[in-house]
Amino acid sequence: MTNPSRVARPKSAAAFERATRSIPGGVNSPARAFGGVGGTPIIVKRADGPYLFDVDGYRYLDFIGSWGPMILGHRHPAVVEATIAAINNGSSYGAPCELETELAEMVVAAIPSVEMVRFVSSGTEATMSAIRLARGFTGRDLIVKFAGCYHGHVDSLLVSAGSSALTLGVPNSPGVPKGCTQDTLILQYNDVQELADFFAAKGGQIAGVILEPVVGNMGLIPPSAEFRKELRRLTHHHGSVLIYDEVMTGFRLSYGGAQELFGDTPDVTALGKIIGGGYPVGAYGGRADILKKVMPAGPVFQAGTLSGNPVAMAAGIATLRELKQNPPYQRLDQLTQQIATGITAAAKQYGHAHQLQRIGSMWTLFFANAPVTNYQTAVASDKQKFARFFWEMMDRGVYLPCSQFEAAFTCAAMTDEHLQETITAASDSLRAMAQV
Ligand code: PMP
């Protein structure tokens, strides 16, 4: 596809072309490759506060925030200071250190359903370990997942996955044997009847149900209250482990995540992104009787050379401390609401069928006629139109997720000025789209 941008970025183009010669597709994670919008990714030189700067010298207001972790914005002074201090004490020990316990205690204090927590190095590891634990704890094999939810690139969860698996149209990746996914059952998000029917038929065989309690990986989709309630009731009744994948929503929608916002109590929670403050950290935690099955406390194996890495722990601690001491959630909610209102008004003014879906600082502008509630309605939205909107915004210095099937994140480093900048850019973009 020819580059849809009207702005020349020769240095990014050359750097990306160079990358494609040694790295598959030029990227180390497919969502970055702009597959959903066409054209060439910008190559980032540095980041500061709410901004990214590319190698051509352009500045972008960053609504990706490393796909979620950078809720405080880039280079937050407290995080930088804590991280440098940790580095000066050595990068990795492969032995226990107090920073791990400190972050574990912070997570346990933040999320009432999490009585114990184990750190890993990515969200993928967190969900992979959580479902292994659910199976080990219950002695059952079946895992229920919802179409369009993304839980990392765990073999057995790479069926009907969202995020880049959806953007790139590979719901089932080659290389994942049938045997790996035959015990993963796919249901529709927000479909209470299907859920009830399925539990009625198979309840006693279901080890666990995993879901994004607010979906970010089909674009932003909220759960219905009835869906959440039924999930808890049915899993409890049938002795299945309810796993909230809060890799994206944890410490994002509130300090205690989506479950605090809704007042929910899952059995196990997967975490990542924000808890690492921009460094590679994931975690899974939950009921103590379940977590005590993890080796060496129990028989369920899980390990990691860099798990609980002191530098990453220090960045996580500094991030959570800042979020606890100066909670940005109310302001993020207001700021994002204003952005949503501004964009909605412009979309209406210029006659674009749209749904602006939002919870707190997570939001998506779908080019769709009706509310997006599940996989089917998400894929029915106008992806061509989204691609056009994405590039119009890029060319005006606003960096949105490069896919209709990803949520945008507002960060605490953004001010009213950035809000106005975003609304103006969106309004100009939507006007330009209406003209051609
Ligand atoms: N779960 C969810 C809800 C996610 O959004 C992601 C990543 N976007 C993951 C799991 C996987 O995390 P990671 O990319 O750190 O492996």
TrEMBL record:
GO CC entries: cytoplasm
Principal subcellular localization: cytoplasm
Gene for this chain: hemL
Molecular function GO labels: glutamate-1-semialdehyde 2,1-aminomutase activity; pyridoxal phosphate binding; transaminase activity
Enzyme nomenclature, EC number: 5.4.3.8
A GO BP annotation: protoporphyrinogen IX biosynthetic process
Name recorded for this polypeptide: Glutamate-1-semialdehyde 2,1-aminomutase
Signal peptide, first to last residue: none
Entry keyword set: Cytoplasm, Isomerase, Porphyrin biosynthesis, Pyridoxal phosphate
Subunit structure: Homodimer.
